[in-house]
Each structure stands twice: as C-alpha cells, then as structure tokens.
Amino acid sequence: MTRISSHPMLRQALYDPSRTTSAALEAYWLGRVEYEDGLELMQECWSQRNAGLVADHVLYLEHDQVITYGRATPIEHLPSTACQIPRVEVNRGGLATYHGPGQLVGYLIVDLRKRRGGKPPDLHNFLRAIEDGVAAYLVKHWRLAAGRVLGKTGVWILDGTQPRKICSMGIAVRRWVTWHGFALNIDVDLSVFDEFVPCG
Fold first, then answer.
1. pTM of the full predicted structure?
2. 52 in helix, strand or coil?
3. What pLDDT, on the 0 to 100 scale, is given for residue 9?
4. Which of 87, 136, 147, 170 is the most exposed place for a label (fewest CB within 10 A)?
5. What pLDDT, on a 0 to 100 scale, did the predictor assign at position 64?
6. Is 199 among the residues known to form the active site?
7. Alpha-carbon distance 82 to 194, whole Å?
8. Cβ–Cβ under 8 Å, residues 30 and 61
9. Alpha-carbon distance 196 to 65, whole Å?
10. Other CB atoms within 10 Å distance of the CB of residue 136
C-alpha cells in the first residue's frame, strides 16, 4: 500500500515555485493510494491551484475497495449494512460509484478560468472533453466501441447491444477550479456493482 506521504517527489514537483513548465496538463502516477489519503491530497492540490501556485494537473492512481457517493445519492442506492465495502460521502456531483483494484482513477485539478482564447469557464464543456478523451483512448489503444450516450455522463461501450458504462465521472468545482474526476474500469471485479445502484 502506497501512502501520499511516501510521494515526496510528487510534492516537490507540484509545489516547487522555481519550476516552470509548458505543459497544458501535467500528469502524475501515484500507484495504490488509500481513499482518504487521495482525498486529502486532492483538496490540497485544489487549494494550491486556486492560489495559482501550481499548474493544471491530473493525479492517476488506484484505490482499495470503497464506495463513494455524492450529495444527491438516494439512500436506497447505497449498499446494505451487510456489505463489507467501506462507503464515504464526498463533495462532488454524481451518485454512488465504486473504486477498487483494477480501476484507473484520474483526479483532475484544473482552473476552468484559464481556457484558451479567453473563453468563459464552462463545466459542461469540460465534462464532454473528458468523455471524448477517454473514449478516444479506448478506441485507439483498445479498439473498443466507446463513446458518449446523449443525456448521460460517462463513457460507454456502444457495440450494438445495450450501452454499458466503462467509465464513470463525478466532478466538483469551486471558484471554477475542479477536483475529483473519472474512474475507468480496466480489470475490475464487476460483481461488486451488484451491491448497490451504480451511478443511478
């Protein structure tokens, strides 16, 4: 198990004021991270980005088993008390979702006020861009029929059968700086999703 405190290089890279970069979005791989540690680092990164001390960045990682749920999640969508998987209420959009081994999580710390061409910040455009990017990756590198479903958030497998979600998304934004992100199922035990109502 890797804890955030064991990532001094990440902290130095993010918070070194003498460092300059031309990257539009910097990416960091953290490995396996406990959910509470990931949440703490994400909030710290949000504060630093809101203050203009770091660049836009994405934290890639994997969590131990946990079910997280947003503010609007109905209680009947959550697992029963017999379920042994921890659950955590988080400050983001979206409903209940699962994180665990075999799933790539991406936390996006992005200042939407810094759009190219001076365009006004737009959270919906940001969500659509994430969906398009994940779908393009799945099509190009995995040859999956991935794409969006009109009126629904996330990335879906669209192979002529009923659409199946492969990537869930839940973004929070405050002062136009985002945190939280997406969860892409790669090699996940799908039986876990029978324990609750995923993403509504």
1. 0.84
2. coil
3. 47
4. 136
5. 93
6. yes
7. 13
8. yes
9. 14
10. 13
Q: For the sheet containing 66-69, what is the strand order?
A: 87-89, 66-69, 97-99
Spatial CA neighbour of 107 closest among 182, 27, 37 = 182
Q: Report pLDDT for 15.
A: 53
Q: Name residue 38's amino acid.
A: G
Partners of 57 in beta bridges: 26, 109
Phi, psi of 117 (to 5 degrees): 75, 10
Contact between 30 and 10 under an 8 Å Cβ cutoff? The reply is yes
* pLDDT number for residue 1: 35
- Residue 11 is predicted with a pLDDT of 55
- pLDDT reported for residue 13: 53
Size of the chain, expressed as the number of residues it contains: 200
Catalytic member of 45, 83, 167, 199? 199
Q: Mark 63-84 as b/e (b = at least 16 C-beta within 10 Å).
A: beebbbbbeebeeebbbeeeee
Which of 99, 92, 89, 200 shows the shortest CA–CA distance to 152? 200
Here the tokens at position 72 are 């609007």
Mean pLDDT by 10-residue block, N- to C-terminus, for the chain (200 residues)?
44 52 75 90 91 91 90 82 86 82 95 85 93 96 95 92 92 93 91 79
Which residues does 115 contact at the CB level (< 8 Å), separation at least 6? 121, 122
SS3 78: coil
